[in-house]
């Protein structure tokens, strides 16, 4: 047991604690398997002498350490992954012969990695950013990587522009900042000179870009792909991940504070909830449509800056993903996992979307650099879980070279598992795609409308969400130094919606309204709003998976705490005890409770709602703790439900809150735990 270890002083070997076992299964060795006698002291010439170069144990240890880092991903560097399974509903075989969808109830292992885009590997989780949502399905016919985002459209239409987009979004190259944010001149300069980004900007400025947890966000394949069924019939398809617990985001002021209080907020939530057996789940949905629909649709289905509203092509659920196992080792799995959009399986195919076509080159290329060679498919997290038979060989770190004499084709050697052949009947076949035309660099005119769906998105939001979008534009553009860039963005917003443009201009204090940006096409005002685009219209129906922060102190009434914790348990929700000291508190009935957080380490921004359950004899002391005041004031400002008892009123008095107490305050003495938790299902008291 770790606690029983005591350092026993320097005995010329770094202390007894470190010298240990003689049994085989605990003995430390070098990477070559040679047992190590002393892992604390290098080999020296004399007791105080210089270290000897001869010390192979030291050299091997240091050499390995020196080479620990691999290049971080050029984008999506900050990510977190988990294992799980995909369970097929068995209803997609009509559209696709992809093996993973053929049998109802069959489970296919998956590994899913979520990420932010712009920040470096050590950046905070709650940056305003798009989230990557990449799923590797280890199917019986090879790995299928669905490398998506939590936003269904993208900033650009052609992969040719991607390096510029990313250069502009990441830190400015001369100064090396800002980190993990687009709130700077270069990003908005590029975006405002690339009007195709306007639709995506609306999503990126919405609360989609600050999810409450990875479990409460949607995912999208973004591009249109193809499904091919057993008869060879082809359909188009768009992929959607729908979180079973509904969608939920934080508010911007919370995000700013959470990044300080817990930069690992999202990964910790995923880790904790999986370990607690509260497994995040998403249903996989598909929008399947044919060429006739594509021809009649208002926009080009190969343009990744457009959605197909669910009202026009409904989303059919075809399976469920459950993440039920955390990684054993972050580096081996989350870092080394290599998603490639080119990894598809029979029954699925690409379309000519110029963004997707470019991605198919980029991912393979970048993994080769990042993981050091072509054999990254041999790393366990990337290796298919079905048989692989081919004649690819050698290269750095080759671990599964084919066996036997034959390593070429055609050959006349006896056929066996080491001598495979292509199989025309069952192998992957590209779908048909009639093609003809001149070689040219061109943006199809069917890609020219940049504003209509931006307006449709805006109009589909609730008033609260519209206000958040306006505020986000104002926040980001207020960090932009050049007035001309701020104005240029507003000139595009004028093409989207005047109310939005005016609100942003006002927030920026613009004295004159810029002229509307020139547009290739007039904005369509006839597109119907879509409820599916709003987070608040698709919120949770339960408090499950959410967390209550219970701030209590010595002599807090035990029943006030237990009625809540019991009700939360029934709901499937979590709680943390926030206390004046981490060593815990003694409740009114003498029971002791450990604190999960000391009050200054557990600000209310970390919770979906709070309870302030104090005692008469402690409340005065608590009124003197600045963080206790912030706990309540932030919860109030972030429109959270605040459960309280009579003693807490003194603290509210001190904060001048008593007169402002609204229906978002829940008196635990008037309501029992069940009733209180029922109210928490609304997540926030937006009327405040
Ligand atoms: Fe990526 N993207 N991307 N991307 N992307 C990468 O691949 C790229 C795009 C997405 O958790 C890189 O392994 C190009 C759209 C995710 O490991 C790189 C283009 C979507 C992840 C790359 C795009 C994505 C990446 C960097 C424009 C949503 C993280 C490291 C044509 C559908 C995967 C890596 C993970 C990562 C290139 C646009 C999603 C450089 C060229 C659109 C989720 O290859």
From TrEMBL:
This is Catalase. GO terms for cellular component: cytosol. The keyword Disulfide bond does not apply. Transmembrane segments: none annotated. Its EC number is 1.11.1.6. Heme binds at residues 73, 113, 162, 359, 363, 370. Decomposes hydrogen peroxide into water and oxygen; serves to protect cells from the toxic effects of hydrogen peroxide. It comes from Salinimonas iocasae. One of its GO terms (biological process) is hydrogen peroxide catabolic process. SMART domains: Catalase (SM01060). Residues 29-417 form the Catalase core domain. It is an enzyme of class 1 (oxidoreductase). GO terms for molecular function: catalase activity; heme binding; metal ion binding.
């Amino acid at each position: 047991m770790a606690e029983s270890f005591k350092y026993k002083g320097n005995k010329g070997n770094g202390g007894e604690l470190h010298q240990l076992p003689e049994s085989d299964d605990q003995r430390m060795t070098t990477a070559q398997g040679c047992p190590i006698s002393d892992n604390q002291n290098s080999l020296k010439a004399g007791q105080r002498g210089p270290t000897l170069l001869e010390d192979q144990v030291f050299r091997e240890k240091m050499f390995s350490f020196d080479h620990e880092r691999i290049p971080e991903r050029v984008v999506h560097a900050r990510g977190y992954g988990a294992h799980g399974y995909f369970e097929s509903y068995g209803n997609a075989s009509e559209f696709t012969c992809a093996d993973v969808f053929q049998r109802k109830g069959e489970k296919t292992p998956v590994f899913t990695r979520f990420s932010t885009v712009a920040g470096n590997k050590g950046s905070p989780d709650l940056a305003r950013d798009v989230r990557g949502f990449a799923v590797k399905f280890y199917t019986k016919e090879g790995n299928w990587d669905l490398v998506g985002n939590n936003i269904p459209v993208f900033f650009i239409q052609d992969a040719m522009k991607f390096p510029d987009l990313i250069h502009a979004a990441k830190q400015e190259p001369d100064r090396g900042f800002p980190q993990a944010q687009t709130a700077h001149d270069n990003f908005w300069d590029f975006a405002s000179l690339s009007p195709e980004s306007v639709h995506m900007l609306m999503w990126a400025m919405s609360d989609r870009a600050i999810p409450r947890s990875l479990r409460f966000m949607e995912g999208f394949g973004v591009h249109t792909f193809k499904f091919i069924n057993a008869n060879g019939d082809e359909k188009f398809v768009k992929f959607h991940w729908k979180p079973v617990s509904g969608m939920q985001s934080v508010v911007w002021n919370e995000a700013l504070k959470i990044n300080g209080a817990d930069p690992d907020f999202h990964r910790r939530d995923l880790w904790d909830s999986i370990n607690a057996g509260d497994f995040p789940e998403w249903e996989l949905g598909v929008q399947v449509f044919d060429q006739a629909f594509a021809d009649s649709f208002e926009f080009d289905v190969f343009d990744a800056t457009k959605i197909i509203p669910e009202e026009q092509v409904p989303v059919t659920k075809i399976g469920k993903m459950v993440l039920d196992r955390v990684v054993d080792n972050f580096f081996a799995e989350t870092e080394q996992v290599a998603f490639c959009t080119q990894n598809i399986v029979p029954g699925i195919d690409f379309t000519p979307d110029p963004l997707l076509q470019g991605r198919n080159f980029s991912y393979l290329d970048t993994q080769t650099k990042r993981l050091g060679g072509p054999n990254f498919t041999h790393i366990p997290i990337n290796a298919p879980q079905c048989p692989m038979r081919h004649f690819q060989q050698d290269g750095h770190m080759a671990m599964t070279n084919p066996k036997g004499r034959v390593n070429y084709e055609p050959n006349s050697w006896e056929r066996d598992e080491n001598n495979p052949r292509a199989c025309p009947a069952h192998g992957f076949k590209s779908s048909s795609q009639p093609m003809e035309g001149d070689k040219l660099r061109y943006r199809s005119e069917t890609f020219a409308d940049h504003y209509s769906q931006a307006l449709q998105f805006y109009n589909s939001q609730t008033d609260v969400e519209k206000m958040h979008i306006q505020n986000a534009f104002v926040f980001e553009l207020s960090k932009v130094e050049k007035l001309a860039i701020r104005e240029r963005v507003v000139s595009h917003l004028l093409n989207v919606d005047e109310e939005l443009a005016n609100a942003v201009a006002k927030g920026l204090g613009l004295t004159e309204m810029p002229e509307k940006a020139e547009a290739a096409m007039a904005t369509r005002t006839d597109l119907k709003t879509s409820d599916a685009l709003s987070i608040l219209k698709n919120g949770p129906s339960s408090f499950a998976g959410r967390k209550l922060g219970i701030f209590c102190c010595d002599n807090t009434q035990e029943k006030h705490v237990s009625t809540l914790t019991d009700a939360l348990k029934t709901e499937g929700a979590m709680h943390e005890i926030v206390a004046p000291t981490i060593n815990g508190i003694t409740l009114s009935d003498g029971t002791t409770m450990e604190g999960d957080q000391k009050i200054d380490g557990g600000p209310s921004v970390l919770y979906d709602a709070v309870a302030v359950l104090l005692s008469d004899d402690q409340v005065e002391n608590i009124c003197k703790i600045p963080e206790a005041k912030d706990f309540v004031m932030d919860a109030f400002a972030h429109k959270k439900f605040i459960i309280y008892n009579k003693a807490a009123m003194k603290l509210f008095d001190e904060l001048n809150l008593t007169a402002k107490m609204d229906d978002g305050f829940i008196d635990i003495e008037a309501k029992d735990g069940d009733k209180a938790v029922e109210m928490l299902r609304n997540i926030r008291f937006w009327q405040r």
